[in-house]
Write a structure and sequence with these properties.
13% strand; elongated; alpha/beta; 289 residues
Length: 289
Amino acid sequence: MAEIQQVQWFPGHMAKTRRKIAEDLKLVDVVVELLDARIPKSSSNPVLREIVRNKPRVVVLNKSDLADPTQTLRWVTVFKEQGLAALPLESRTGKGLPALYGAIRSELKDQLEVWKQKGMTGRPIRVMVLGIPNVGKSSIINRMILGSRTGKAEVRDKPGVTRQNRWFTVKEGFELLDTPGVLWPKFEDPLVGEHLAFTGAVRDEILDLEGLAGRLLEVLAELYPDAASIRYKLAPTKEQLSGYQLLELIGRKRGMLISGGEVDTSRAAITLLDEFRGGKLGKITLEWT
């Protein structure tokens, strides 16, 4: 298994980044927290939750098109039981965006009424989108911008906003604050690091991909026993194979051989991880409720 727990999640600039986000929160009305629907717990940022605890928040289970729909619905229920607005979304297609705008309005219902009483009915709702790496933040922001009236970003300066901040009109009545920098979680539980590595939130360059792929196959064998065998047309075996043995079978089945007939497990690992992340092994959720 790759030494994911050794990854340094808080580089020297993190304190500055945290202060910047806390400062920018004063400029917005609501935070949209993006989670990966396949790993809702591991992709939930504990530092972010602390920073935004006093700000209205909508939880979005992004990449729901790659996740097990039954588990996604259960996670939505879990978050709602915690008093949080939550919904699934597909950033690749934009499916769920209308529901997101509706959830934001519902979350700010009391504030909208106050604005109305003050004659501020034209005042736009200002939104900040936050999430860990590779959770689809850029895709959702682009989708929101494409859904704007003009079909393109409308960038305007605002008083009291630093030069690094950019405001986009993403829909009539909504503005998005795009801030520099990305905030990601520090984790102590190795499973969290494992899940983040499976889904691509950790850079592959610093990981043992063969070990990671083998471990993923073991997890899939437990949660979705037929996923790998169907995708790679593996014949059933009487014995329980290790993840590495399964990886070798996949490489051999795909003809990934090097001199001497040995399986190129490095190539097989890259293929497996790419296909899992692309949803080719099916709709899979690694964290069940």
